[in-house]
Amino acid sequence: MKIVLVSRIDEADALRYTASLARELEGLGHDVALEEGTAAHLGEEGISFEEIDGDLVVVVGGDGSVLLTVHQMKKQVPVLGINWGEVGFLADLEPDEAGAFFAAHRDGFDVERRMRVSLSVNGMPLGDALNEGLVVTDRPAKMLRFGVYVDGTPAERFRADGLLVSTPTGSTAYAMSAGGPIVDPQIEGFLLVPLAPYMLSSRPHLISTRRNLEITLETEKPAHLVIDGQSTFELEKEATLTVKKSDQPALFVHTGKPFFEKVNRKLRNL
Q: Active-site residues (predicted)?
């Protein structure tokens, strides 16, 4: 297999582990390349995120490293995360599990598709999110006014500090911290979670991807859209955000660990 390795670069131990893993994978007969940022810190030649193409991308890092990789890849390639972070919910393997996994899957692996959301503002495509798009004011303590329209019908209007437009995958990230539900990633839906809404009646919504979803920003206050914590866009006054299911889902290697087992182990310490 052709495998590309990506490592977080702020941890020397993670870089050393990545270099060791590269040698181990080459010993198993795989064609191994390094992402250019990782390669530069190891004194090697590498390839850019945009050039990544092959059978597998292995990310040594936390959820942020995985999100960065998915966000930057021009073409989605199956991703396998090796946890070198805090929770590491998108990283299925621990470092000491990787060797046995690769030895047992020399000829291939199963792939799980995770939906992403495509976000456009006033008709202009801005990008796809694996976890969430965040709309938030750039002035602390200033509230925004939102309108939610489903198939053209007004579904909700509320004032809040911000709004998360999350995927089921992102339901265990920022959306969960903001009071949203944990959603099975096999469900395809748009999860809307208001941030500190003014009214108690403003609750999270889970909306089918088969619906046409638009969100209006009805405010004179400056605001921004942040996609997966990677890209930030300034929003015009009275902007309309269109939310659609992306035609390029993220691809993850299925390691055999059930989703709700991960929830219990990583979030509930059961």
A: 63
Q: What residues does each domain of the chain span?
A: 2-114+249-268, 117-245
Binding-site annotation, residues for NAD(+): 63-64, 131-132, 142, 159, 161, 172-177, 196, 230
Query: How does pLDDT run across 186-228, given as a tens digit for each residue?
Result: 999 999 999 999 988 899 999 999 999 999 998 778 899 999 9
pLDDT digits (tens, 9 = 90+) for 60-114: 999 999 999 999 999 999 999 999 977 788 999 999 999 999 999 988 899 999 9
Catalytic entry in 63, 92, 128, 228: 63
At residue 216, the 3 state secondary structure works out as: strand
Query: Which 3 state secondary structure label does DSSP give 114?
Result: strand
Give this prediction's pTM. Answer: 0.93
Q: How far apart are CA 139 and CA 137, in angstroms?
A: 5
Residue 63 annotated among the catalytic residues of the structure: yes
Distance, CA of 263 to CA of 269 (rounded, Å): 9
Binding residues: 63-64, 131-132, 142, 159, 161, 172-177, 196, 230
Topology of the domain comprising 2-114+249-268: Rossmann fold (3.40.50)
Topology (CATH level 3) of domain 117-245 = Tumour Suppressor Smad4 (2.60.200)
